[in-house]
């Protein structure tokens, strides 16, 4: 895919994420031909618990191509296992998606030839030359969260449609799920009882097919990490209803220009000056017990908040210029739904900070603006909570001023950049419903208008 096509894909994502419904989507999408053209056959994780690293690595390889880069070597899952541990301070093979993304951005990723995967055993520190080469690819990976991790809820209709929208725009989606205890692929086309599944396994959705004969109205095509001998050359099928019931988390990955995710100026949230508040109590909280390497400075600003609470913080921009402004958040079992507002700009769409464990949250993009040197204000408002959340609180890690995208308007408010499934306006008096609603996910179009997308 050339640079023009890559740009069109991003525009398609931005324009459809907040407006389109299932009826606007093609009936079938298949990214497997594109994976094949990139020589990215499904790989085997062996006996190690590294499925999430395989999923993120596959998405990173695909994102590299989607950004119009020269064909890359197959990236190293082994390096990403080490990088996730190094970035988070944790040990062992297993990593959550958010830990893998931390490793990808902090340390990058090299071709596998310099860091071969071992199907058994534990990872070791790569050679210094490999670490140096991988670092050239660091600081440019942007995670777009569709669902933050929780085993207490599956996908809502909005999240399921967001996955289909992302696939239709030519982007694979990494997904962690509860998996059949039997490991029989046929169970993925049903909705087995909770006693028949366990947590968990990670795969990559690479397509879908609407089909009224399958539970939920169709199925996703998935890329597994059990090698090319599993099912159909390493690919399988999963009913929409299975994903809707048992998905834990989901995201897609975008590759930006070099250093595009490295802030020009980072303002630690705990250093912000609180100048106004209603219903807020703040605390500088150490994140050591949660993997402090995932939080800037190992701390966050923890805000105990009441319903409809508002906090206004003042910060200083050291140098005038155009910036992409990003609020780095924390997600947790007791966190609510917030909006953020920069100076007199419009508020962002609401973002749900509920997750089944304390972890880095999805970043709130406040748009690209020309900011003059001097004092500015950030307003955060609690607008509701997920029905599974224990409270309305929230956590802030940092406020980042990043390089403005080359083509961005200096006054553009980028609210459309938020992940649609995380920012759907709350319902039912401020409580966002978490349970799936199995509606119609089929095309809903007359046959002459049904489209099929296959990415070559």
Overall description:
Residues 408-429 have a biased composition (Polar residues). Residues 25-245 form the Peptidase C1A papain C-terminal domain. Keywords: Signal. Residues 405-449 are annotated as: Disordered. The chain has 456 residues and is of the alpha+beta class. It folds into 2 domains: 3-255, Cysteine proteinases (Cathepsin B, Chain A); 265-432, Jelly Rolls. 20% of the residues lie in helices and 32% in strands. The chain is built from 9 helices and 19 strands. It has helices at residues 3-17, 32-37, 51-66, 77-88, 97-107, 128-135, 157-168, 240-246, 420-423; strands spanning 28-30, 141-147, 173-180, 197-210, 218-223, 235-239, 247-255, 265-268, 273-286, 299-317, 321-331, 337-342, 351-352, 359-360, 364-371, 374-386, 394-403, 431-432, 452-454. The strands form 2 sheets. Strands 8, 9, 10, 11, 12, 13, 14, 15, 16, 17 and 18 form an 11-stranded mixed beta sheet that branches. Strand 12 (337-342) and strand 13 (351-352) form a beta hairpin. The longest helix is centred in the first third of the chain and has 16 residues, at 51-66. The N and C termini lie close together (9 Å).
Features:
2 domains; Jelly Rolls; alpha+beta; 456 residues; 8-stranded mixed sheet; single chain; Cathepsin B, Chain A; disordered N terminus; 20% helix; 11-stranded mixed sheet
């Amino acid at each position: 895919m050339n640079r023009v096509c890559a740009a069109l894909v991003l525009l398609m994502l931005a324009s459809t994420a907040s407006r389109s419904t299932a009826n606007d989507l093609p009936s079938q999408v298949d990214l497997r031909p594109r994976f094949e053209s990139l020589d990215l056959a499904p790989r085997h994780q062996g006996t190690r618990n590294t499925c999430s690293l395989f999923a993120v690595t596959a998405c990173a390889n695909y994102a590299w191509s989607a950004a119009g880069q020269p064909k890359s070597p197959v990236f190293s899952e082994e390096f990403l296992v080490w990088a996730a541990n190094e970035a988070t301070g944790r040990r062992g093979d297993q990593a959550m998606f958010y830990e893998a993304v931390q490793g990808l951005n902090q340390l990058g990723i090299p071709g596998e030839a310099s860091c071969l995967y071992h199907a058994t055993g534990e990872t070791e520190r790569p050679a210094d030359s490999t670490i140096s080469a991988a670092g050239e690819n660091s600081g440019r990976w942007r995670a777009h969260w569709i669902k933050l991790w929780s085993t207490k809820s599956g996908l809502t209709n909005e999240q399921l449609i967001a996955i289909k929208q992302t696939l239709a725009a030519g982007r694979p989606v990494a997904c962690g799920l509860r998996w059949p205890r039997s490991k029989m692929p046929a169970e993925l086309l049903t909705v087995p009882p909770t006693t028949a599944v366990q947590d968990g396994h990670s795969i990559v959705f690479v397509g879908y097919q609407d089909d009224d004969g399958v539970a939920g109205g169709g199925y996703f095509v998935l890329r597994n990490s059990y090698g090319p001998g599993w099912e159909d050359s390493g690919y399988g099928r999963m009913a929409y209803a299975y994903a809707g019931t048992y998905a834990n988390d989901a995201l897609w990955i975008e590759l930006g220009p070099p250093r595009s995710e490295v802030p020009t100026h980072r303002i630690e949230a705990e250093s912000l000056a609180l100048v106004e508040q209603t219903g807020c109590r703040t605390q500088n909280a150490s994140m050591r017990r949660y993997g402090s390497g995932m939080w800037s400075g190992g701390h966050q600003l923890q805000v105990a908040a009441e319903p409809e609470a508002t906090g206004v913080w003042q910060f200083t921009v050291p140098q005038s210029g155009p910036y992409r402004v990003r609020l780095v958040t924390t997600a947790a079992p007791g966190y609510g739904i917030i909006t953020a507002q920069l100076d007199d700009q419009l508020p962002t769409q609401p973002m749900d900070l509920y997750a089944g464990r304390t972890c880095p949250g999805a970043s709130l993009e406040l748009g690209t603006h020309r900011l003059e040197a001097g004092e500015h204000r950030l307003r955060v408002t609690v607008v509701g909570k997920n029905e599974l959340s224990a409270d309305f609180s929230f956590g802030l890690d940092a406020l980042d001023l990043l390089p403005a995208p080359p083509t961005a308007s200096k006054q553009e408010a980028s609210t459309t950049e938020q992940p649609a499934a995380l920012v759907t306006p709350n319902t039912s008096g401020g409580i966002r419903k978490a349970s799936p609603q199995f509606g119609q996910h089929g095309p809903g179009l007359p046959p002459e208008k049904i489209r099929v997308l296959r990415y070559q």
